[in-house]
Predict the structure.
Amino acid sequence: MTEDQLRDLRTSSAPAGNRLARAFELAGLTQVDCVRRTKFTRQYVSDMTRGRFQNVSLDNARAFADYFGCRIEDLFPAPEEPAAAQPILPFVPKAVAR
């Protein structure tokens, strides 16, 4: 992938939990080509692209990254951290002046 393609990939959302579909689109590659160049089955590549699986092994993530010529994080971004909730402070009544 070119630097422009990688930049686009890194800033795209990952609705399926991964960016495989966008990577195929940007690189102009097909799932069939991916199956031919990796050890994966057609069904596995399709399922991963559609986000059917929530987790991917490190070996498989590396194989996808090698295929696209990018980093694992480019294809499988870490889940967004939920916004930190504001701490709830206990109610402390004001002292009454005497």
User: Anything to note?
Assistant: The chain has a mean pLDDT of 85. Residues 34 and 67 are 7 Å apart (CA to CA). Residues 58-68 form the longest helix (11 residues). The radius of gyration is 21 Å.
